[in-house]
# Entry
Amino acid sequence: PNSTLCIALYATHRLCNHAAATERLSRIGCVGALGLLCEFVQAVSCLFLLKVEFGSPFSDMMLFIKTVVFNFELLHLSCLVSEDPLVELLIKLLTPAFLLALFVGIFYADRYARPRKHARGGSEPRDSSSAALVRRAEQRHSLTGLFNTSGLIVLTFYTSIALATFTAFNCFEADDGVYFSASYEGVECWREEHGRMVGVAAAFIGLYTIGTLVFCVVVSLQYKRKLLRDPRFAQRFRFLFGRWRAQIYYYQSLRLLRNLLLAAIPTLLPYDEPQVQVTLLVFVLSASLVAQLRLRPWRVDALNLLDGGLTIALLLLLIIMGTSLCTSADGVASTACGMTRSQSVVSTLLVSLMMAAGLLFAVVQWRRSLSSSTSFDIFLSHHKGGAGNTARLMKLFLSQGTRARVFYDADNLNSLDLLFEAVRSSRRVVVILSAETAQRPWCVGELAVAYQSGVPILPVVLPSGQRLLDTLDAGSHALSDEALELLAPYDITRDDVAEVMEHVVFALEKEYSESAADATQRVVRRICGGDAGAPRQSSGLLPRDLLADLRRFKPDELTKSADRASIVVAGGGDGIEAASAAVYLKLELQRSTQEPVALAVVESRRLPLEAVEALQPSSIIYVVLTEGVFRSAPLAAFLALAARRGALLQPVTTLQDFAFPSAAFLKQLAVEGVPLGATRGVAEEALDACMPEGWTWSGAAAAQERASGDEEPLSTEEVSGAWQCLFRQIAMPCNLNSSSEDAIREQVAALVARASSRLRRQLSDNRHTLDPAGHSSGLALRRKASTLWTRVSSSGSTTPASSGTTTRYARGDARGASGATTASGGLSS
# Structure
């Protein structure tokens, strides 16, 4: 047993001393499962102290476990000292201190037996990333590592330590009415010798049991106050907070209180009243189970299930013990009945099954922690407000064009622990730098975790990201206290943030791009060509088939606009985010309808000719509403042309807080031309300049259009009327930032279903039109409505009237609908 204990202490030391930012959840799961098993067996040992006749084989199993593992009788000095019960008690109470001293010796032996790798070679690490890895590896050999592992050992064996201090109080009544100690044979309770033993035990209760609990409570109360003031507070007390979710940092104190009660009830309460002890133990375990299921405190979610299962197993054991108690005529519990053979077998199987399940879980987690396999090829780190649409489109490019496994937080994120775990298990991190990346705690946290874990980082700078680089060049990269408070539980300090941002700005080669397609192409080129200065790790090398896919990848082929398409996606606004949203919606509509979709992303000053030629009465125009959309003159001209030709307009919002126009805004646009220009004349000149070069009509349709005056210059009144026509429809959401990929596809299906419904209504309104132009338009509408309805039905979507999902979208956009109604009413008046 002593050799086994030394090996266990050394394994604990090696497993537990890792920085929080680099520690994989599988390692936390392994250590947590082993700790839960230790606590479970100690709790069963507490139940074994009850006045119950357990019978074989359960009693045999428990005697073996108590003797080998949790008896704290590792030091046998009977050859040196007399067999005095007081000396025996002192030796038992000093055993925990001896174990800690043994661990300190193991720690220093390991510290000097494992010198720093770069010291052996006589040279320093080659780059800053390697230096970070060496510094983090040395943490397990620091005094902080010693303190953390020692604390974890004390917390794990807290129940046994409490039992060792309480055993002196455990007395039973003999047949002659005299009370004797249940743990020390021949010692009569509350006599002189027993009084000395009680005094010694009380001193160690204050030192070990109560002292440990008070220490944990005091440190937990200081958590919020010291988390930011002391940069290494979270690292120093990881044994208290590292296993729990950041919001439930105080749970270790509740855990210790529960274990203290499990040890105190069987030993401090009268031994001859097992029915009272069983009742109180059931209450304590039930309260603990309710709190554990309600709070779900473990960082690894599977540990919450394991913890709950072990607590339920203890409750089942207490139920079996309760049914085995007999009551005599005077109401006193008797052990004459005891456990039956079948109850003893069931109890043995229950304990063995739970221990086997815990061990199996620990082994699986341990193997995962040793595995070098990766879950993702590329991790896209981005700020949602500045690069969310661009990152979403880049993932779509890589997913459709290659077999790369790409992490995008809205698709894969269930918790913040899993976010950092995804960074650690990725081949490389592509960080999309926008204006506010350095002020967002989770963006900085992802970079810090990647930097400390040795995952290669590839920066991509968007146009707004140049401001960020200028700010970082000036040395300003301080996070707010609120942001640092979110990162502190993961052992990421202000110095770590400064170090990783300096590494990104000054040490890494950056890619500059003005579109998602170009950014994706540059990332692929860098990945296939190799990152200069990136650490060469086995996890960073891509498989050959994936590299072949990346070399053949051409995102421009995915963004080609279709000619003569009846579905058009129009977008405009400020920057790359607006263009990315329109391109993404175009690709999703193309996938959903299986029809060509034209794209009118008005990034330049002129409208695309193919998009204007696609405008027909049977056309469906999806207008993507983004920030700055009302300042785009090309988009305003495109909407006015679409309204002239009777195309169906459907607004689509990609922002949760999009500001819909008021009646006063649209009136000012019609009368003064603002915000398209300073004056009405300037605005109309801007509209004329947006028309595509060489755009002419041909055939009979051209003559009809000329006759109707559609080639007259556009006016601001017509543009205002086009916006009014657009906002008569309820704006449908397509939230690319925070919705998962499946949710986005549901939203796109709702868009297609709504367009089909509107086409059918328009066909019904025009079915009595007898002129040739109306007949042609009605025929086109009938064909388009039938085609779209077939596409939607084959994909399993429903009509807006019957779809619960669509109803939810419409209800969520009541603000947009009311805004459109207000604008319409204002112009009508």
